[in-house]
TrEMBL record:
UniProt family annotation: Belongs to the DapA family.
Biological or metabolic pathway of the protein: Amino-acid biosynthesis; L-lysine biosynthesis via DAP pathway; (S)-tetrahydrodipicolinate from L-aspartate: step 3/4
Gene, per the UniProt record: dapA
SUPFAM superfamilies, alphabetized: Aldolase (SSF51569)
GO cellular component terms listed in the entry, alphabetical order: cytosol
Catalytic activity: L-aspartate 4-semialdehyde + pyruvate = (2S,4S)-4-hydroxy-2,3,4,5-tetrahydrodipicolinate + H2O + H(+)
Name of the protein this chain belongs to: 4-hydroxy-tetrahydrodipicolinate synthase
Task of the protein: Catalyzes the condensation of (S)-aspartate-beta-semialdehyde [(S)-ASA] and pyruvate to 4-hydroxy-tetrahydrodipicolinate (HTPA).
PROSITE patterns: DHDPS_1, DHDPS_2
GO terms for MF: 4-hydroxy-tetrahydrodipicolinate synthase activity
Annotated EC: 4.3.3.7
Catalytic center residues: Y144 (proton donor/acceptor), K172 (schiff-base intermediate with substrate)
């Protein structure tokens, strides 16, 4: 069955994006060639864009200078055919401003700005942080709401005030409250799924896209799910989603999922020759890699 979608979806950064991993050499230094290779792999496999230096990119462990080098390498590799979004969220407003200004100079298409973590500011403090960083550049901003990592959710009142800022256009939602998400869309936000297991649900509720982790290994499959849903073939979209579930469980099923599982998946796919991470993360052990391999294979990804 093929029909025309019943309503338009704002897609300021495209539909399918992945919060990409950052490659490291054995000595712990940034592997810019490997990082560019990851970006190229993603864009060659169904992605409209990449998010650089998010949590999956191990941004808590990289310096401002390294962030600039990583971003420039990715921009050079894929910036002519995909959107490049820079993670600039930290729990220090001045630090985030520094990262945002650097990213604008490099020429990114968007900024990902997470709620400040650990220091747990009031909602007034959250809004002050968002406003200060957003007003530092002219680059479109995607807010990131992930209370499981930050210990703090963005209130609807803060969302309502933030959308009044000229550059704030989207949110990456890892809360998974679809009713609240519809309210955000009514405010004017493009809502991107921040959790692979929720992506099909977001599409059903009017979501714009996904910022994935599974996309490191399943870009074409995620793209097919989006294309089927957009064509009105919801049964085919559900079938694609269902086939990916073993891989979702495998990628998200270890305590330090994200960079660790993404890099191990990239190693299994031959994109990287190692699965190096920086402390406090540790690479997947052999048993964890075997479980990841089994999950990816069960979804037809290996």
């Amino acid at each position: 069955m093929t029909t025309t979608p019943t309503f338009p979806r704002p897609t300021p950064f495209g539909r399918v994006l992945t919060a990409m991993a950052t490659a490291f050499h054995d000595d712990g230094s940034v592997d810019l060639e490997g990082t560019a290779r990851i970006a190229t792999h993603l864009v060659d496999h169904g992605h409209d864009g990449v998010v650089v230096s998010g949590t999956t990119g191990e941004s808590p462990t990289t310096t401002v200078a390294e962030d600039g080098e990583i971003l420039a390498a990715v921009k050079d590799a894929v910036g002519d055919r995909a959107t490049v979004v820079a993670g600039v969220g930290t729990n220090a407003t001045a630090h985030s401003v520094e990262l945002a200004v650097q990213a604008e100079k490099i020429g990114v298409d968007g900024l990902l700005l997470v709620t400040p973590y650990y220091n747990k500011p009031s909602q007034a403090g959250v809004l002050h942080h968002f406003r200060t960083v957003a007003e530092a550049t002219g680059v479109p901003v995607m807010l990131y709401d992930v209370p499981g990592r930050t210990g703090l959710a963005i209130s609807l009142e803060t969302y309502a005030a933030a959308i009044e800022l000229d550059t704030v256009v989207a949110v990456k939602d890892a809360v998974g409250d679809f009713v609240r998400g519809v309210k955000l869309m009514q405010m004017g936000y493009a809502v991107y799924s921040g959790d692979d297991v929720s992506t099909l649900g977001w599409l059903a509720h009017g979501g714009s896209g996904v910022v994935s982790v599974l996309g490191h290994a399943a870009g074409p499959q995620i793209r097919r799910m989006f294309d089927a849903f957009d064509a009105g073939d919801h049964a085919a979209a559900l079938a694609e989603f269902t086939r990916m579930l073993p891989a979702v469980d495998a990628v998200m099923g270890v305590p330090n999922y994200g960079a660790t599982t993404a890099k191990a998946a990239l190693q299994l796919l031959g994109v990287l020759d190692n699965r190096n991470v920086r402390g406090p993360l540790v690479p997947l052990d052999d048993d964890e890699v075997a479980a990841l391999r089994a999950g990816l294979a069960a979804s037809g990804l290996l």
